[in-house]
UniProtKB/TrEMBL annotation:
<dbReference type="GO" id="GO:0008289">
    <property type="term" value="F:lipid binding"/>
</dbReference>
<keyword id="KW-0812">Transmembrane</keyword>
<feature type="transmembrane region" description="Helical">
    <location>
        <begin position="257"/>
        <end position="280"/>
    </location>
</feature>
<dbReference type="InterPro" id="IPR003797">
    <property type="entry name" value="DegV"/>
</dbReference>
<dbReference type="InterPro" id="IPR050270">
    <property type="entry name" value="DegV_domain_contain"/>
</dbReference>
<dbReference type="Pfam" id="PF02645">
    <property type="entry name" value="DegV"/>
</dbReference>
<comment type="function">
    <text>May bind long-chain fatty acids, such as palmitate, and may play a role in lipid transport or fatty acid metabolism.</text>
</comment>
<keyword id="KW-0446">Lipid-binding</keyword>
<keyword id="KW-0472">Membrane</keyword>
<protein>
    <submittedName>
        <fullName>Fatty acid-binding protein DegV</fullName>
    </submittedName>
</protein>
<dbReference type="InterPro" id="IPR043168">
    <property type="entry name" value="DegV_C"/>
</dbReference>
<keyword id="KW-1133">Transmembrane helix</keyword>
């Protein structure tokens, strides 16, 4: 069976990674000059507590040696594996993984190891990982799973909003003036992923309007919402995530909705209160 590997930026719920035996490589976050491994020796809720207390966390790539060690463990046992990474548009993890894969192949030239750039973040590529793991468990071939991943990469929609523009200001996503005025006027941006990078889409006043607009955008962009898994991730805001879920059910009838907390890798940049919505704009093809 093909083994699926990902990193903690995928925010895949632990029960799913355990159920499908998915290898999870921890991303690195630095807080108050201390280095932590995401979901290993720090949990997302702890990160958001630090941030609410004024800490300014930074993120770092997975140590190359850890990626190489993981890939080598499958190569030397002759087990095919696919590593699905955080978008290369916002992280260097994909490029590092490709370099490590090439080093592994020098030692094990017959190994079947693939590294796939999700061009997504958080549960966006968590849904890709989940689908790939289901297909691997069904016994599908490596090329079939890669085709599915390419379909997700092309058709996945990712829509975000943040609770506090200050965190986007720190990351250079908005100007200081926009952040100050946005905070005063309670303006909340709606952003989306395009070509693996995050871009502003609209600005609205009030959380309720933002959630309504996120659902409107989903209905506008999706061919069909009947046969897909919809993902919601949140940065320590279960109440709003649940409100979004209920709105989606009310507006679309789709109850196949997965909710998870945004991990340290994405949360360090987006900040507490971030809400993200993920869905395919066209149903998965059957190959």
């Amino acid at each position: 069976m093909i083994h699926i590997i990902t990193d903690t930026g995928s925010d895949l719920p632990k029960q799913l990674s355990d159920e499908y035996n998915i290898s999870m490589i921890p991303l690195v976050v630095q807080i108050n000059n201390e280095e932590y491994l995401d979901r290993s020796n720090i949990e997302p809720k702890q990160l958001y507590t630090y941030m609410k207390d004024g800490a300014v966390p930074k993120t770092a790539q997975v140590p190359p040696a850890l990626i190489k060690e993981t890939l080598t463990s499958y190569a030397k046992n002759g087990q095919p594996a696919i590593y699905i990474t955080l978008s290369s548009g916002i992280s260097g993890t994909y490029q590092t993984a490709v370099l490590m894969k090439n080093e592994v192949l020098e030692e094990y030239p017959d190994a079947q190891i693939e590294v796939f750039d999700s061009q997504a973040a958080s549960l966006g590529y968590g849904l890709m990982v989940y689908e790939a793991a289901k297909e691997a468990k069904e016994g599908k071939a490596l090329n079939e799973i890669m085709n599915t991943l390419q379909h997700y990469q092309k058709h996945l929609e990712s829509i975000f909003t943040v609770d506090d523009l200050e965190y986007l200001l720190r990351g250079g996503r908005v100007s200081k003036t926009a952040a100050v005025m946005g905070t005063l006027l309670k303006i909340k941006p709606v952003l989306h992923m395009e070509d693996g990078k995050l871009f502003p889409l609209e600005k609205l006043r009030g959380k309720k309007k933002v959630l309504g607009r996120m659902v409107e955008l989903m209905k506008e962009r999706a061919e069909s919402l009947d046969d897909i898994t919809i993902g919601i991730s949140h940065a320590d805001d279960t109440e709003t995530a649940q409100a979004l879920k209920e709105l989606i059910i009310e507006e679309t009838g789709n109850r196949n909705i997965l909710i998870t907390m945004i991990g340290c890798a994405i949360g360090a940049h987006a900040g507490p209160g971030t809400i993200a919505l993920f869905f395919l704009n066209t149903p998965k093809k059957v190959y």
